[in-house]
């Protein structure tokens, strides 16, 4: 790889041991990818700290969180002192909500370590957004901006909806990027790699949030890690629908970039989306594909008695919380069911101010932050059957937690929370 003089100096140790380790990791990573150089980034979203029992034990045995960063962010068995981050860096979602730890079955010792980790991250200059949707709470990259982000649903959003540039990075590469402001120049950082590869033609209107989730799940399954271009009459996606579409496509496949001509910034036309390429394959999405996708998403569900309703994957916006409150106000969550709604911590503060948290709590639900059920492996004790409005969550939660899960609309899920039974269906 070709390195600049500044990059060579970091690699040679002129800027400290931690940045030397970071550059060594990025060099090995870039060479493995076939990257010819690094690209400067001023925007990183990743995770640091001890978020699992194994890491917490590692931190205790090896002498603290610098040891965790060295091992798990820099791939270094040698413990080095970690300096403040070099560029603007945001922390993604974590494993628990410390304000609802008891409800999530998390002990006080874990909360103590969580808060210690928060303090450590803040001390390095990392912004404690603690969400899978940093773009909802202040980290909004510009079109063309080179980023280094983890979290599949966030990467696809900033690539396709905002026109920023990032590959789906890992804990190691984002940790190294925080200290160096560099990331390998490959994949979706390169103009030619962002062009469409497959065409998806819609044979039906795609309107509701759940419809967009199912479309995303279908598209991801068909194109895997390629770049779909979606066309159809009457398309009018909102940013929230695109959020759910992208999260689903990144779950069933590995989609990190897509185009919807006339809506996404790099695709004013179909021709611009493909950039001179011809579609490798053409897929059609109509009522039959919608039905098959719905049945696929509900493949684990059998029992109509719902113990647990989880909303907020990706993390809910204030608009989505408002919608739930309209559906829930004046009603009561069933005695045999729990309702957990996940949102960024900053959004929860707005919900507090607007009285939405009170409405949810008076109904018997909980507004949580910093994590979600699949990532944190936090569900109510004894849960056997869940209901969710997220194609991403229904993809992961049954496999991770060994439970049944229903997928449907937000209204279906609120109705299940209130009645304790699943009555949803494809409409």
From TrEMBL:
This is Putative aconitase subunit 1. Keywords: Iron, Lyase. It comes from the Bacteria. Residues 1-415 form the Phosphomevalonate dehydratase large subunit-like domain. The keyword Lyase applies. GO terms for molecular function: lyase activity. The keyword Lyase applies. SUPFAM superfamilies: Aconitase iron-sulfur domain. It comes from Pigmentiphaga kullae. PANTHER family: DUF521 DOMAIN PROTEIN (AFU_ORTHOLOGUE AFUA_6G00490). InterPro entries: Aconitase_4Fe-4S_dom, PMDh-L-like_dom. Pfam families: AcnX.
């Amino acid at each position: 790889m070709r390195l600049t003089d500044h990059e060579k100096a970091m690699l040679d140790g002129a800027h400290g041991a931690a940045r030397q380790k970071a550059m060594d990791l990025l060099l090995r990573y870039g060479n493995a990818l076939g990257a010819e150089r690094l690209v400067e980034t001023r925007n990183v979203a990743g995770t640091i700290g001890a978020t699992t029992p194994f890491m917490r034990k590692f931190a205790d045995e090896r002498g603290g969180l610098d040891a965790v960063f060295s091992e798990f962010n820099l791939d270094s068995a040698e413990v080095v002192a970690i300096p403040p981050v070099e560029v603007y860096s945001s922390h993604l979602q974590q494993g628990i909500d410390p304000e609802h730890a008891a409800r999530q079955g998390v002990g006080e010792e874990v909360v103590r370590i969580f808060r210690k980790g928060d303090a450590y991250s803040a001390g390095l200059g990392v912004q404690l957004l603690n969400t899978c949707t940093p773009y909802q709470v202040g980290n909004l990259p510009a079109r063309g901006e080179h980023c280094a982000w983890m979290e599949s649903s966030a990467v696809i959003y900033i690539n396709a909806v905002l026109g920023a540039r990032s590959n789906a990075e890992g804990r190691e590469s984002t940790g190294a990027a925080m200290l160096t402001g560099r990331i390998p120049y490959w994949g979706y950082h390169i103009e030619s790699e962002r062009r469409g590869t497959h065409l998806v033609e819609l044979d039906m209107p795609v309107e509701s949030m759940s419809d967009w989730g199912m479309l995303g799940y279908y598209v991801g399954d068909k194109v895997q890690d390629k770049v779909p271009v979606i066309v159809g009459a009457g398309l009018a996606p909102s940013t929230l629908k695109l959020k759910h579409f992208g999260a689903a496509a990144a779950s069933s496949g590995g989609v990190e970039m897509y185009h919807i001509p006339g809506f996404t910034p790099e695709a004013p036309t179909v021709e611009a989306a493909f950039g001179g390429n011809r579609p490798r394959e053409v897929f059609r999405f109509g009522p039959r594909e919608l039905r098959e996708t719905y049945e696929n998403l509900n493949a684990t569900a059998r029992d109509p008695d719902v113990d647990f309703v989880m909303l907020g994957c990706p993390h809910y916006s204030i608009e989505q919380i408002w919608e739930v409150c309209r559906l829930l106000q004046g009603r009561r969550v069933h005695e045999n069911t729990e309702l957990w709604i996940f949102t960024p911590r900053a959004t929860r503060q707005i919900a507090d101010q607007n009285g939405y948290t009170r409405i949810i709590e008076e109904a018997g639900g909980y507004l949580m932050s910093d994590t979600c059920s699949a990532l944190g492996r936090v569900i109510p004790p004894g849960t056997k059957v869940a209901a969710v409005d997220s194609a991403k969550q229904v993809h992961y939660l049954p496999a991770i937690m060994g439970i049944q899960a229903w997928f449907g609309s937000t209204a279906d899920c609120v109705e299940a929370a209130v009645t304790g039974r699943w009555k949803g269906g494809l409409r």
